[in-house]
Each structure stands twice: as structure tokens, then as C-alpha cells.
Design goal:
By secondary structure, the protein is of the alpha/beta class. The chain is built from 11 helices and 8 strands. Strand 5, helix 5 and strand 6 form a beta-alpha-beta unit. Helix 8 packs antiparallel against helix 9. The longest helix is centred in the last third of the chain and has 19 residues.
Length: 300
């Protein structure tokens, strides 16, 4: 059994992709298969309804169903899901209530374009949090700018609103360490891969990053090595993560979807609701990376 999320806020939060049919409707059957694949990677948590899920292109009903299905197939993990994507305050209140009832273990709130207004952000999060009893994490979601917050603001969110952690997307060590210095008993969770190893050395203890959507086991191996104190092994695993990150960076998230397909989820089409597509050359490059991972025991 997984530990309750309130007692286990560190570790790997694997992001969930959304599979689409050719007509851009959600492929629910494939999603359920994908949930089981993600849970099998040995990670502590799954992050349903996230940026990599294309949450900005999904309806509220679709987001709620994705969260419910992830909770249904979560295995020995806990689930968090974004719960404040609706436009109006009253719609967000209903969204929080409904998302809390899907079976997820925690909610994620975006900074909702209040990055430059700390007082408004803290008031907003504190009031919205009153509508759920679940643990709440913050997300500097780039789709709603200005999204970045200071370390001081984050510290106040922890102290005044009881926030449990944050997905940092500053992509700078200055931004990361500022939050770590103010984290209290929360967890600073990484989205940036080049600084992952340095961020862990500085005190970060979690990951919410795009490559987890198709390679959660890479991060489990890194996290376990680091936490055991084996820095040589952790550095090796970090290098593998950088190769994974580079392999899917061009064309994400279609590239990640294709890599999932190569790992056995045969109907996971590399299709987004945006017009983005993968070229035959990119697909060959991803396949070559997958084959290398199989040869080296890193993937199936």
C-alpha cells in the first residue's frame, strides 16, 4: 500500500499524457492501459491533468474523467491533479470540489497568472484551498503567465496556506535555491532536467518533469541512488535522464507518446489536439533511442 500523500510528499510525480484518437477525441481505453504502465514504473506518485496532459485543451468533464481513471488504475501510487483551470472564481470553486471527489489524493493549483502579485496570489490560494480537505501543491504553469513566483512568496504560501510542495519551472538554480531556502516542511519539486542533480544536492527532493511521462523508471533509479548516498550511481542515472530528455525534447509531447507506444502501449498514437506532428526522421531517432535503452536494460 502507498503511504498517504500527506506523509509522503517527496519522490517522483510522473506526468500523465493524454492519448487521442484520429479525430482528436480522448482514447479512454488506451489511457487506462497507460495508467497501469505508469504505475508499474515504480514511482511514488502520478500527476494527472497537467501541462503534459494538454490540460489547457481539455474540457472540465475530460479533466475530471482523466483524474478518475488515473485514481482507478493507480496501483501502489498516489495521485495529484490540477484543479483550478476554469476561468471564473465560481467555476474554479466547483472544479476544486469536483476534482476532490474523483479519488485523487491531492490537488495542484497553478499560480493563475498572479506571479507578479504576491498578495493577490496568497489570498487567492488561501481562499480556494478552503474548498478541499486534500493536500495542495503549487504549479508555476507556463500556460498562464506571469507564472513564476519568488522564494519569499513560496515561503508565505507554505506558512500561511499550508502548501505541501511546488513544481518549480524557473529553470534556474537561483530560482530553485530561493524556494528551497523558504520551503519549510514542504517539498521543492523539479521540472528542469539540466539542473536536476544540482537541485537535489541543494535540497530538492522531487521531480515533476516531462520525461517522466514516458520514462518514470529513469527517475526512480536516480532518486533511489541519490537518497542512498551513492553519488557515483546517481550521477550515472542523471546522465541517462539527460539522454531521455534530449530524445523527446524536439516535438514533445508527440515524441513522448511515440516512445510510450514503442514500450508496448501499441494504440498510443503520437497525436495532439494542436497541429504538431512528428516527421519520419524524428520517429526514427526516437526508435533508435528506444532500441539503445532496451539493449542497456533501461526500457522494455
Amino acid at each position: 500500500m502507498a503511504k498517504p500523500l500527506k506523509d509522503n510528499i517527496t519522490g517522483i510525480f510522473s506526468l500523465m499524457l493524454t492519448p487521442f484518437n484520429e479525430d482528436k477525441t480522448v482514447d479512454w481505453k488506451t489511457y487506462e492501459e497507460y495508467c497501469e504502465y505508469q504505475a508499474s514504473q515504480g514511482v511514488e506518485h502520478l500527476f494527472a491533468v497537467c501541462g503534459s496532459s494538454e490540460m489547457a485543451c481539455l474540457t472540465l468533464e475530460e479533466r475530471l474523467k482523466l483524474a478518475s481513471l488515473t485514481a482507478k488504475h493507480k496501483g501502489d501510487t498516489t495521485i495529484v491533479a490540477t484543479a483550478n483551470m476554469e476561468a471564473s472564481w465560481f467555476a474554479q470553486v466547483e472544479e476544486v470540489k469536483k476534482m476532490s471527489e474523483t479519488g485523487v489524493d491531492g490537488l495542484v493549483f497553478t499560480t493563475k497568472a498572479f506571479g507578479n502579485d504576491p498578495e493577490r496570489l496568497i489570498s487567492y490560494i488561501g481562499e480556494l484551498k478552503e474548498f478541499t480537505s486534500l493536500p495542495v501543491f503549487m504549479y508555476e504553469f507556463p500556460g498562464l503567465k506571469p507564472h513564476l513566483i519568488s522564494g519569499e512568496t513560496y515561503g508565505r504560501l507554505v506558512k500561511e496556506c499550508g502548501i505541501k510542495g511546488i513544481k518549480d519551472t524557473t529553470c534556474t538554480m537561483e530560482g530553485i535555491t530561493a524556494k528551497i531556502a523558504n520551503k519549510g516542511d514542504s517539498c521543492v519539486i523539479q521540472a528542469n532536467m539540466p539542473f536536476l542533480f544540482e537541485a537535489y544536492k541543494a535540497g530538492s527532493r522531487g521531480v515533476m518533469a516531462t520525461p517522466t511521462s514516458c520514462g518514470g523508471a529513469f527517475f526512480r533509479r536516480f532518486h533511489e541512488a541519490f537518497m542512498s548516498g551513492d553519488m557515483k550511481e546517481a550521477e550515472k542515472r542523471f546522465h541517462e535522464i539527460i539522454m531521455l530528455d534530449n530524445a523527446i525534447d524536439n516535438g514533445f509531447n508527440n515524441s513522448a507518446k511515440y516512445l510510450v507506444q514503442l514500450q508496448g502501449i501499441k494504440n498510443f498514437r503520437p497525436i495532439n489536439r494542436t497541429p504538431d506532428t512528428l516527421t519520419p526522421a524524428r520517429m526514427e531517432s526516437i526508435k533508435a533511442f528506444h532500441d539503445w535503452c532496451v539493449i542497456n536494460g533501461l526500457m522494455l
